[in-house]
Specification:
This protein is of the alpha+beta class. The protein has helices at residues 21-24, 38-46, 53-56, 61-64, 69-72, 79-85, 114-133, and strands spanning 2-7, 75-77, 90-99. 35% of the residues lie in helices and 13% in strands. Strands 2-1-3 form a three-stranded antiparallel sheet. The protein starts with a strand and ends in a 14-residue tail after the last helix. The relative contact order is 0.22.
Length: 147
């Protein structure tokens, strides 16, 4: 699934035309732990949006006046996360240069357990319902990986 920025509906970026990464960089972004998502981290650094504390402490009176950092923080989302979060955030019209996905990881000795297979089938059935509404959700064939 493509990843996009999310913010509160009254965020100043919502009214910005031709939104660019440099516009987003003027506001605090969701902090991610260094090293936890190496590909995401590298991608965010390449566009100048990694959560460094120097950038996050900038203050522009005309952009921030009357708002708290929490109200102005820009996060990340996908159609699936937006569907299930109920957070009240809305997507900004700017996609990030990476995709996201979901995976179920289990111990090898549980791979064929009937309850696990039933859980997998339930999850896949629910994801198929979402994929009918959101073509950006791409379901990969299910196959156990050993390694």
């Amino acid at each position: 699934m493509p990843v996009f920025f999310v913010a509160s509906p009254d965020h100043p970026l919502m009214s910005k035309r031709n939104l660019a990464y440099s516009d987003v960089a003027e506001y605090p972004t969701l902090g991610l732990p260094s090293g936890a998502y190496p590909l995401v981290e590298a991608s965010l650094k390449s566009i100048g949006l990694w959560n460094d504390f120097v950038r996050m402490s900038r203050y522009r009176r005309e952009a921030w006046e009357g708002k708290t950092e929490a109200e102005l923080t820009v996060g990340y989302g996908t159609v699936l996360s937006m569907e299930v979060s109920g957070s009240g955030l809305v997507p900004l019209p700017l996609h990030l240069p990476f995709d996201s996905g979901e995976v179920m990881v289990v111990r090898r000795d549980f791979c064929s357990h009937p309850r696990l297979l039933a859980l997998r089938d339930l999850i896949v059935a629910r994801l198929r319902q979402f994929a009918r509404r959101y073509p950006e959700i791409c379901l990969e064939p299910s196959s156990p990986r050993h390694g």
